[in-house]
UniProtKB/TrEMBL annotation:
It comes from the Bacteria. This is Uncharacterized protein.
Length: 70
């Protein structure tokens, strides 16, 4: 993966990816709980839905990278 600003190659260890996956999974659960508490069809609900989707994509890409053995 390349840094968008500097163009430098960025690498991650398996442990770093696993820790990131754990943190992202935790954030997904927290956002889901928060979504249940906000008013339906509100901007807060829309924002949380979009954050959850983005975090799910991130978790999926990390899982894919881990399973491929980096």
């Amino acid at each position: 993966m390349n840094n968008n600003i500097t163009g430098e190659k960025i690498t991650f260890s398996k442990m770093e990816l696993e820790e990131a996956r754990t943190a992202i999974t935790s954030l997904i659960h927290k956002c889901e709980k928060a979504k249940d508490k906000v008013k339906k069809n509100s901007s807060q609900e829309t924002l949380l839905k979009r954050r959850i989707k983005a975090l799910q994509i991130s978790a999926s890409l990390i899982e894919e990278k881990i399973s491929k053995g980096i």
